[in-house]
Amino acid sequence: MNDETEYDLVGVGLGPFNLGLAALAEPLAGLRTLFLDARPGFAWHPGLLLEGAQLQVPFLADLVSLVDPTSRWSFLSYLREQDRLFPFYFAERFHVPRREYDHYCRWVAESLPSCRFGARVDGLRWSPRAGRFLLDTTDPTTGVTGRVAARHVVLGVGTQPVVPEPLAHLVGDHVFHAGDYLDRLPALRGARDVTVVGSGQSGAEVFLDLLRRAPEHHWRVRWLTRSPAFAPMEYSKLGLEHFTPDYTAYFRDLPESTRDALVPAQWQLYKAISAETIDEIHTLLYERSVGGERPEVSLTANVAIEAARATADGYLLSCRETRQDRAFELRTERVVLATGYAARRPALLDPLVDLVDWDQRGRYRVDGDYRVTLAPEVSGSLFVQNAELHTHGVGTPDLGLGAWRAATILNAVTGGTAYRLPTRTAFTGFGVPDDAITGSGVPDDAITDESPVAEGAPCPRTSP
Distance between CA 322 and CA 304 in Å, rounded? Predict the structure, then answer.
C-alpha cells in the first residue's frame, strides 16, 4: 500500500474506539483520514461472544451517540438498516446482546471507506524532512509492503491478555486466556476438573457457561480469585459518574503517585461483576442444591496462585489464602485465565521510542487531548485511545467515554470545534467545591472553645 495521499489523521488499530473516531471523522469536510488494521475484518472479543452475554453499558454508549445522536453511524441507525427497530422497541432493552454490538461495529467498519483491514503497521517513525509521520505497512496475506504519510497518528491497538507469571510457562491447549474461551472450548472435553482464575465480568461469564455445561460433561468447576470477594460492579447512578469527563479531568490533576494508588483501589468500578450475572450464577447453584444435592462447584476468594507445574494427569497449583496466610495446593486438569487485559507498548513504536517523553515507569505522558508528549522537534501529534488508564483513570476502557474521547481528539486535530462538548457532565463535584472558602482571613488562633456558635450553625472556619 504505497498511498500517495498525505493524511491528516491515520489510526492504527480498529477496535471500537478507533472505529468510533473513524465514524465521527467521516462527515468532517476536508479531513483526510485512514484507519488500518492487520486483521481481515472487524472482530470484538470473539472468544467471549457467549449466548446471553450483554453489553455492560447502555446502547447509547455506541460509537457516536453520546457526541452526535443524529449520526448515521448510531446504533439506532444500525437497527433501522437491519429492520430491527420494532423488535428492539418491544424488547424494551437498555443493554443489548454483546453479539449484536459486535455485529453493529462490523456494519460500521464495512461501510466506512476510511477503514482498511489487512494492513499491518510494522513501524511508525517521524520524518523531519517531510514533517510527517511515516507508517510502514504489510499485507499479512500477500506480504506486500507499503508506506503511508500522516500529519497526526492515533494508536488504538487495544490491550493484550494478562497471564499471571506463575502460569505463563503452561499456556497452551489446556491452560489458556478467557479471550480464547469459545475457540478453546473443545479442549475442555474429557476433563474432570476445570478451574477459572479471575473474578471480573469475563471470569463470571465463563464460570456461568461452564456451570451450564457441567452436567453434560461431568465437570467439577472451580473458581478462584485474588480479590476479597466475588463482588458486584458499582452501578449506582452517582457511582457511575466516575465515568464522566468531569471525573477524568479531576483524576488528571491528581499527583502521579495518588493516581497510581487510586486506580487499583477502584476495582469495583471497572473490574467487578454485573449484579445480573451474579444473580444468574446464584440461581443456578441454588436450583442444583435442591433436595440436599451438592453441585461439584467451589468458589474461593483471597487466593493467590504462587506457582504451578504440569503433572501426569493435569496441573498442580500452589496457592495461598492471603487473609489467613496459609499455603495449599490444588489439582486440576484445565485452567481458564480470566485475568484481564493491559495496555502495552506496541513494537511498531520502536522507531519512535527516543522521541517519546516516557514517565518513570515507561508509560506515555498523555495530556487532556489524549496527545502523547513528544520531543519538541516533532510537529505532528501522536494520540492514544485506551492506553491512558494511569493518566485519565477508570473511564479509560469504558465504551461510554469512547465517543467523547474521539471528539476531543478530532477537535484537537482540526484546531476548532468539530464537535461541541458539554462543560458539565456530572451532578457530583469532584475536588474542592467551586464555592468553597479556602482562606477566610480569620487566623486559626482567633477561634476558641468560647467562640459563639449557634446550635446547628456551620463552623465559622469554613462557612461564608
Answer: 7
